[in-house]
Amino acid sequence: MTSPLKIKIKSKFKTLVILSSIMALTSIATAQETYVPSKENVEAREWFQDAKFGIFIHWGVYSQLAGGGNPGGEEWIMETEQIPIDKYERLGTTFNPVKFDADEWVLGFKSSGAKYITITSKHHDGFAMYDSAVSDYDIAEENSFGRDIMKELKAACDKHGIKLFFYYSQLDWHHPDYYPRGGSGQGYTGRPMSGDWDKYIDYQNAQLKELLTNYGDIGGFWFDGWWDHRNDDYKERWRLEETYKLIHDLQPHALVINNHHVTPYPGEDVQPFEQDLPGENHSGFNTMEVTDEMPIEMAQTMNGSWGFSLTDDAFKSTKELIQTLVGAAGRNSNYLMNTGPMSDGRIQPENVQTYKEMGEWFKVYGESIYGTRGGPIGPRPWGVTTRKDNALYVHVLDWKDSILTVPLEGVEVASATLVRNGKSISYEITNGGLALNIPMEELNEFDAVIKIMIK
Ligand code: GLC
Predict the structure, then answer these.
(1) Percentage, residues of the chain above pLDDT 70
(2) Are 211 and 218 in contact (CB under 8 A)?
(3) In angstroms, what is the span from residue 64 Cα to ligand 1's centroid?
(4) Strands 116-122 and 53-57: what pairing?
(5) Nearest Cα to 449, choosing from 409, 410, 422?
(6) Cβ–Cβ < 8 Å for 111, 148
(7) 297 touches ligand 1 (CB under 6 Å)
(8) pTM for this one?
(9) Does 9 have pLDDT greater than 90?
(10) pLDDT for the residue numbered 30
(11) Contact 407, 10 (CB under 8 A)
(12) Which atom of ligand 1 is nearest to the CA of 275?
């Protein structure tokens, strides 16, 4: 656990005294009015924040169509191409990922430095990627692949020390009782224009119960699709309280994350951000305030697509991914980096290569990320800070001069070293703060990390 570190920050307008203690659990009551997370849950939140980095996996029967040539349409193809249910169901019978090897996957993900994975157990198309007894629209049926992907993955995760989270779509384009329809899934699917909404929620909760009881301890759930009803009364009819209670009763440590893009509801344990660093909003989704009442997590694609895309080769460079991860850590956020496995069960080779490069980076710089919290100096044009015990890590992502003055005052510095090689660098306390003398060659790194030990 991180001990309190009292640091004064020099800002243009006033000097702020930041008491950077662990997450202020006492303030949970404000937005989370009736919800008090259990002891196990609070511990799991700490674990989660320490872990910092996870791999997101969008894999389903849609992976076979690989977006049909439209980058961005992968897991949405049923909707974008208006494929009727009886036709789309064929994908469940042709999905045959014979090269799927859970151990290989998990070892590959682990090689990136990630500590957990979050995989689509059911996406908007309604197809369960595990053996569901309450549905015959699932991967383990006889006329389907016939194996329980989630079981295999969980066994591999346990073996290799990785935590498993399930993505689960509340929105469902297949279930007849998902009615009234929301902003998507209108008209084309071949469902009756009637249905019993509560029956659908019962079905959803029955599936969640299966995922909570048949796969041992899980990290938690990552919900998506709430926004399908954001513009109608059904946004209040998801029965979230009941669903979240079910989860916390069966697995108190399981973290509830919901990608609804609004202020967290009671019962939620992590606030997610999609395609943006917390506090930024380039995607248009992220208009909500960043909470300080629970951990936060940013999810991002490695190219522009969640599911496997035939045509989307716009892969972000390792530098860009690392810099985003560091930017997230400096904002006290986890980073969930997505891959869309191919329909034969392999991970795209481009991604596997990037994992290796990220893992190499973590071997050198891991101490400045794992187990840290956002540092006392907020994001700056030059980079961010993280902290752990009495160490303050200055992450210099974009700076051209050898002297960088960070607005720290009133601290007694014991040492300043480069994390890359442990070498000391010189520094000076000036009027503007702590002036660090960074060797120019360090500034060519993805992230020049200076470790400042505070007395
Ligand atoms: C959006 C997309 C969905 C994807 C999710 C991941 O909600 O609609 O397909 O799974 O983002 O963050």
Answers:
(1) 93
(2) yes
(3) 18
(4) parallel
(5) 422
(6) no
(7) no
(8) 0.94
(9) no
(10) 44
(11) yes
(12) 12
Q: DSSP label at 263?
A: S
Q: What is the mean pLDDT of residues 162-191?
A: 94
Alpha carbon distance 90, 372 (integer Å): 47
Pocket test for ligand 1, best of 80, 306, 312 (most atoms within 8 A of CB): 306
CATH fold, domain 374-454, is Immunoglobulin-like (2.60.40)
Q: What is the whole-number distance in angstroms between the Cα of residue 407 and the centre of ligand 1?
A: 38
pLDDT digits (tens, 9 = 90+) for 17-67: 333 333 333 344 344 578 999 999 999 999 999 999 999 999 999 999 999
- Counting residues of the chain whose pLDDT is more than 90, the rounded percentage is 89
**For residue 31, what are its two tokens?**
């937005």
224 C-alpha to ligand 1 centroid (Å):
7
Does position 414 have pLDDT exceeding 70, yes or no? yes
> Measured from the CB, is residue 75 less than 6 Å from ligand 1?
yes
**Domain extent listing, the chain:** 32-347, 374-454
Mean pLDDT of 309-313: 96
For ligand 1, the distance from its centroid to the CA atom of residue 297, given in whole angstroms, is 14
Q: Position of tokens 């703060």?
A: 433
From the CB of 355, is ligand 1 less than 6 Å away?
A: no
Q: Which atom of ligand 1 is nearest to 274's Cα?
A: 12
What whole-number distance in Å separates Cα of residue 415 and Cα of residue 427? 9
Mutate to test the pocket of ligand 1, among 224, 260, 276, 303 (most ligand atoms within 8 A of CB): 224
Ligand 1 atom nearest residue 76's Cα? 9
* Token couple for 345: 């069960």
Fold of the 32-347 domain? TIM Barrel (3.20.20)
Question: Is the Cβ atom of 274 under 6 angstroms away from ligand 1?
Answer: yes
